[in-house]
Every structure is written in C-alpha cells, then in structure tokens.
Amino acid sequence: MKAMVFAAGYGRRLRPKTDKLPKALIPISGRPMIEYSLLLLSHFGIKEVIINLHHLGSKIEEHLGSGEKLGLKICYSKEEELLDTGGGLLRARPFLEDGTFIVINSDLLIDLPLNDLCAYHLKKKATATLVLRTDEMAVKYGLIETASDGRLQSFLGHSAPRSSPSALSRFMFTGVQIMEPKVFDYMDDKSPFSLTRVTYSKMLLQGEPLYGYAYRGYWQDLGTPERIREAEEKLAQGEVKLHYLK
What we know:
10-stranded mixed β-sheet; globular; 9 helices; alpha/beta; Spore Coat Polysaccharide Biosynthesis Protein SpsA, Chain A; two-stranded antiparallel ribbon
C-alpha cells in the first residue's frame, strides 16, 4: 500500500517561523512535525510515500531526501501553484492509482492503529474511509455525521440520501483517510479544489460508500503555536506516548 502526505501549505498561523521554514519542518519535541506522520506510516509497513510540495518545498526535500533514514521510499509532487488538497491529490494520481492508499496531513500527531483502519475499510467495502473523532466544537469547525453502521450521512453541510431517520453520531475529521482509486473518477476540475469540500461532497450526493472510522485515541492538530506547545508539554511529561516511536 502507498500513501500521500500533504505538506504544501504556507502555515500562515505559525508565522513568522514559516516565513523561512516550511510548516512541515517546524520541530515538535526535537523532531520535524512531518516525521511523525511518516514514522506512523513506516511502522505499519507502508514504505512508498509521495509528498506534495509548494511553500519552501525544496527545504523539505533536502531534509527528507529519498526517505531512506526513515525506512521509506519518498518521491515528491511539486506544485508551482498551491493546488489545495483535491488538486494536490489529483496531481499525484499516477503514483497512487494502482491500489488502496492512505492520505495523511503533515501537521498532526495521532496514535492511530493503521492496521485496524485498513481492516475496517476493507470490511465496509468503502470507496473512502475517514478517520473521525468526537469534539464539542464539531459544529463550528466541520461537522460530519454518520449512521449507526459508520456510513457518512452528512458532510460539511452536504447530506446523502437516507433510507431511515435513525439518530446520527457527530464527529470531526482528523486529517487521515484511506481510499480507493475510484475517488479520482470524481475529480474533473484541474484548478485548485478541496478534497473534503468538493470531491467528498460529490461522492456523498451520488451515494458512493463513504465511511467514518471512529477514533478515540490521542490526536493533536499542530496548526498554531498554542497547539504545538500543548503537544510538546504532553510528550515531555509522558502524558502521551506514541507507540510507533522508537
């Protein structure tokens, strides 16, 4: 199985640090943040990875190189203009379209059992499975609702056709997902576009099997100085131990 890591963004909320250093290389407890996502993938045997680059991308490529030091084979998708998540994924299609693949953001910490996620995805025969988490701010930052079997019923304001009025569970997206190459069938726009807001919305309305994997372990977004500081404190105090780190 292959994977893609999103690392092209500007990281504006982390300025002025990201004026000279790409967000993906901002250190978290002495390790560039992107390495956490890469080490998670490597721990579960995913060795072939593509990383999209834009803002200060050459520094990311210089730091990671071929990926050998992390036990990976890394290649790069260089974006002359920022393509957003959907456009970036579409550009990487030739690398990913030969089988099931994982997509993960570079700006998060998550202690996710990828083997369980893969098994769940295959069992559901999903076209895409999103790793979801409960959060009291879900309505404000991006509400996703699932039926009792985990199938997505509403996604960022878009709703799927429903066969029953059963109660829905509310979640937020973690930034990790596993998908089949069929997702590319819903990508016909070569301009920058969002995977979540455009592609998944199309799939949901067409009745494509999209599922949510309810994750209850540790997760932390690393998009602001405050969130980085919180993650570093928990790691330093031993409150959080990421099982995939040696």
